[in-house]
Amino acid sequence: MLTERQLLILQVIIDDFIHSAQPIGSRAISKRNDVKYSSATIRNEMADLEELGFLEKTHSSSGRVPSEQGYRFYVDHLMSPFSLSRQDIKRIQAMFGEQLMEFERVVNKSAQILSDLTNYTSIILGPEVFETELKQLQILPLNTHSAVAILVTNTGHVEHRSFTIPVELDPSEIEKTVNILNEKLQGVPIYKLNQKIESEVVTLLKKHTNNFRKTYDYIQAALFSEQPTKLYVSGRTNIMNQPEFKNIDKVRDLFSAIEKEREIAPLLRSQDHGVNVVIGHENEIEAMKDCSLITASYTLGEEHMGTIALLGPTRMDYSKVVSLLNVLSGQMSKTFRAWYQNY
Amino acid sequence: MLTERQLLILQVIIDDFIHSAQPIGSRAISKRNDVKYSSATIRNEMADLEELGFLEKTHSSSGRVPSEQGYRFYVDHLMSPFSLSRQDIKRIQAMFGEQLMEFERVVNKSAQILSDLTNYTSIILGPEVFETELKQLQILPLNTHSAVAILVTNTGHVEHRSFTIPVELDPSEIEKTVNILNEKLQGVPIYKLNQKIESEVVTLLKKHTNNFRKTYDYIQAALFSEQPTKLYVSGRTNIMNQPEFKNIDKVRDLFSAIEKEREIAPLLRSQDHGVNVVIGHENEIEAMKDCSLITASYTLGEEHMGTIALLGPTRMDYSKVVSLLNVLSGQMSKTFRAWYQNY
DNA sequence: GTTAGCACTCCGTGTTATCGAGTGCTAATT
DNA sequence: AATTAGCACTCGATAACACGGAGTGCTAAC
């Protein structure tokens, strides 16, 4: 168990280091008003804290730097709550005050605000709305050989895809099929669509349409194939302002990792709901080993919709970021709920 | 006017430098099989070429490096045509062979291919389809106080936006208005919509609906407000592999510039159609002063749809990039045309 | 338990020397 | 007159070295 004094010193070191990015020496600490011990005492305590694994040296005669374990302890026990500046709060409110009305735009703007206010890189996943229900299916012919398929959910989410109509298919058959699907599938949750079709609609389709299989397969491909959840990244360049990323190879590796949406999306999705802090090597992705990722999830009613996250060096301003994510995820959830109160 | 020998030397220097990124010395040139002059002769010629502004030295006793004027001359007069490798061609064909059928996806994939095959950063603008005609307007109520508006064009382009219905508006009025608009506006080019409404539809609406202004204003905001053309960027990290971008500040400035879509989009849009090369300081944007930007446009039928571009250091493989852009923009145009033959 | 004092360590910086690639110029060669 | 060999010179890159400063660990004194 750490003593009061050790806690104080650890906190001071981490707070200082987060802002200065320089190893902290014993003299600098003992000079502070809130610390009334001599540098020698501090030195002894620092040696102990190092032995316990909370601090590290960059070389044998350097000041101390927090270890990952140190950050972990700080985040779990030491961090003092951060109050956002009046300005920042205004900025957030202003954004949600706009008559945006569009998931995409809210998410996009949120990403921008996050990266602007923190100077880190923001990543937002979503919104994904599994339990969303089908509102309308539509196939709109554009000319003799192409059409656009549109799917609308009860949350106002729209998916669409253009496709060519194979010559062997009869447009009127397609129309008939879509009509039946549309009628039978209203209100069915998206993730149950395929199942519902197979169990209830297929027999009906067989009865009312010729060449059922071909037509249906085609519509299936056009409408029901999964689209990957979108990832919104903002403030990529912020990371380059951090002194720990002066080295271009590091930056390249990190950027490459971020561009691999197939890997980042599941990572964000797998985080606990609520605010979540992943420090350094706790992170699975190699290139993020000296980054921290802080996530929070936003919801629609009770249902989880997506994740907002900030990516920065392990020397991150955890307390600011955590409270900012808290505020923003709350605002997003509140906004979405307001739009779909009776959802 | 340059002599044959000067042309040869200039070409050799630029070709070499494009691949090595190292200043080229007289000895290295004279050793080549296709050059049969001594290093002293080459030195003399190089001094002349420098005086003429085609070459530069990095310091007083260094080898030569092409100047921007040198690159310009190379691009305009010296560049030998490049044949893409069988592999590269296959890759392109494979992509266009897929049953993609979606502007967005084609554009996205094209951006990826461009950056993959060149190791530069690709930027694609579009597609913007001004002369596109309205196919269908629709407003779909989601619940008592929100709805989604969908606009489809004859090219299969879909725009949509969710919005809340103000209490003072009558949903049935909205429906009536949309019905009228839909009926009267089919086939009207998007960019003429507002004009057409004012000149022909307004009177009709006034007759058939109450509270016309408010309802119409609302629909106008929901459906007809301009959405900025999308920008697709791929291979951002490629630029960091270039030795001229080892310096992180340069990279940051360049990245920041690329993120400013409001500035990049007009830049791409303003280029001449066909392939276009902008070298170094010819570029308007400060952060791109030591980059080159090569653009080409793609079309739907006769109509310009958008621009594909590659961004790299001034020491770019111009001949490869130019022919690649040529091939790809052609393929895109061909594909789009095939989809909408009777457009 | 705390602190003053001191020897020691290591980074960062500036200096100097050296090496090599490349140039410009002059004089010799073709 | 054009080309080339030869040579002195320039500059960047690299390595070796000394030195000052910030910081530590340890011992002994308070």
Provide a compact summary of the structure:
Two copies of one chain form a homodimer. With 343 residues, chain A is α+β, with helices and mostly antiparallel strands.
Secondary-structure map with pairings?
The structure is a homodimer of 343-residue chains.
Chain A: H1 4-20, H2 26-31, H3 39-52, E1 55-57, E2 64-66, H4 68-78, H5 86-97, H6 103-118, E3 121-125, E4 134-143, E5 146-153, E6 158-164, H7 171-185, H8 193-208, H9 212-224, E7 231-234, H10 248-259, H11 261-269, E8 276-279, E9 291-300, E10 303-313, H12 318-339
Antiparallel strand pairs in A: 1-2, 3-7, 3-10, 4-5, 5-6, 8-9, 9-10
The structure holds a DNA duplex (30 and 30 nucleotides).
Protein name (chains A, B): Heat-inducible transcription repressor HrcA
Domain Heat-inducible transcription repressor HrcA C-terminal (chains A, B): 104-322
Function (chains A, B): Negative regulator of class I heat shock genes (grpE-dnaK-dnaJ and groELS operons). Prevents heat-shock induction of these operons.
Can you walk through the features of this model?
- Two copies of one chain form a homodimer.
- By secondary structure, chain A is α+β, with helices and mostly antiparallel strands.
- Chain A folds into three domains: 4-78, Arc Repressor Mutant, subunit A, CATH 1.10.10.10; 86-128 and 230-339, GAF domain (Beta-Lactamase); 134-224, 2-Layer Sandwich (Enolase-like, domain 1).
- Helix content of chain A is 48%, strand content 19%.
- The first copy, chain A, has helices at 4-20, 26-31, 39-52, 68-78, 86-97, 103-118, 171-185, 193-208, 212-224, 248-259, 261-269, 318-339; strands spanning 55-57, 64-66, 121-125, 134-143, 146-153, 158-164, 231-234, 276-279, 291-300, 303-313.
- The first copy, chain A, has a five-stranded antiparallel β-sheet, with helices on both faces.
- At the A-B interface, strand 4, strand 5, strand 6 and helix 10 of A face strand 4, strand 5, strand 6 and helix 10 of B.
- The structure holds a DNA duplex (30 and 30 nucleotides).
